[in-house]
Specification:
Layout lengths: L1 H22 L6 E2 L13 E4 L1 E2 L6 E8 L2 E7 L4 E4 L6 E11 L2 E11 L6 E12 L6 E7 L2 E6 L6 E6 L4 E7 L6 E7 L2 E6 L4 E6 L5 E6 L9 E3 L4 E4 L4 E6 L4 E7 L10 E7 L2 E6 L4 E5 L6 E6 L15 E7 L4 E6 L4 E8 L1
Parallel strand pairs: 9-25
Antiparallel strand pairs: 1-3, 2-6, 4-5, 4-7, 7-8, 9-28, 10-11, 11-12, 12-13, 14-15, 15-16, 16-17, 18-19, 19-20, 20-21, 22-23, 23-24, 24-25, 26-27, 27-28
């Protein structure tokens, strides 16, 4: 009986190994990375071919990037893949080899960074205004000559209309205590507001601040900053991504990845649209970056660390809040729980 059981076990093990070998035929091939660079640019071409150490007869190879077919070759001839039209960020490459009546898949990835080296810009402080030190600033935006601010922290989040020169609160709408408020933006006579981790947003009448609609994010992302180009809303989620949203139905229609010429920029936070570019705070960094909204390339950086010396700031009170005043053509910046707001001019 014991011998019979051993035979059954041996037979089963052989079957499993055999099936495993068949299903692991992808291990027969790998994408040849010998000519790959550590980072690629949009002007680069990736030369793709397979390593075929088992010397199988390959009939053809089909290549994909981020699950989109990019081309095919007969046999194992080289395929040249120009990156011009791809987004910055990771390119998840896949090859399916067809050989001897079978097929096998193999994958790898490369990273594409910006071709632009960011300029380092300076700034000039034009004026200083009072800012409510109790405000945990998440969003800042001008609308009809008034400055609007949204704040975070669960249980104390609100949207406030202010007189920016005095810091006086003219109207305040508190959101449900279960939410942590985030960024805001005005578009099409509406005020949009995000929440942090609840995948929930609010739409108010821009004039009365009456809540008109609550909506759910259509992606599993966090809510951080918002801005708009008068047609679409741009929304950050705390990663290197900035999403483009249709304000009519709140659906995400595209995204960009934010990159310098050396790395991706995580923790993209508060956003502001200024003269065709996206200006962004980076969480826990005393700087503003200027982003090409079409490509995600960081074109410039403004070091604002000097402002810390001019305001009541603790270690955790990071810079956050960018508002462009179209009337003065100047930028207003502050931070979480700062007692001052600064009107600045960026020196190009």
């Amino acid at each position: 009986m014991k011998n019979y059981k051993i035979l059954i076990f041996t037979s089963l093990l052989t079957t499993l190994i055999s099936c495993g070998d068949k299903n692991n035929s992808k291990n027969l091939f790998s994408i040849d990375e010998s000519t790959f660079k550590s980072m690629f640019h949009t002007s680069d071409t990736i030369h793709l071919s397979l390593k075929n150490e088992a010397n199988k007869t390959i009939d053809s190879v089909v290549y994909y990037n981020n699950d989109k077919k990019i081309g095919a070759v007969k046999g194992n001839s080289a395929f040249n893949y120009l990156l011009t039209n791809e987004k910055l960020g990771y390119q998840n490459l896949k090859a399916i080899a067809y050989f001897e009546g079978e097929n096998a898949e193999t994958t790898t990835r490369v990273e594409m960074v910006s071709s632009v080296e960011p300029k380092i810009l300076t700034y000039t402080v034009l004026k200083t205004y009072p800012h409510d030190i109790a405000s945990f600033t998440e969003g800042l935006e001008f609308y009809n000559d008034f400055l609007y601010e949204s704040t975070g922290k669960t249980g104390t989040s609100y949207v406030r209309k202010t007189e920016y020169k005095t810091g006086k609160s003219l109207q305040q709408v508190d959101i449900d205590s279960k939410y942590f408020g985030e960024g805001i933006t005005f578009i099409n006579g509406k005020l949009f507001q995000l929440t942090w981790t609840d995948s929930t947003g609010f739409i108010y009448d821009a004039t009365t601040l009456k809540l008109e609609k609550t909506f759910q994010f259509d992606k599993k992302i966090e809510g951080w900053g918002m801005t708009n180009d008068k047609k679409n809303i741009y929304q950050s989620d705390g990663t290197e991504k900035i999403w483009k949203m249709n304000p009519e139905n709140q659906k995400m229609i595209d995204f960009i990845n934010v990159y310098t010429n050396t790395s991706k920029i995580k923790n993209v936070n508060e956003l502001e649209w200024i003269n065709g570019k996206i200006y962004a705070n980076i969480w826990q960094k005393d700087a503003i970056i200027i982003i090409n909204p079409n490509t995600g390339e960081v074109e410039a950086l403004v070091d604002l660390s000097g402002l810390r010396k001019l305001a009541h700031v603790t270690t955790d009170d990071v810079i956050n809040g960018i508002a462009y005043n179209p009337k003065t053509k100047t930028i207003f910046v502050t931070g979480k729980n700062w007692d001052k707001m600064f009107e600045i001019k960026i020196n190009n």
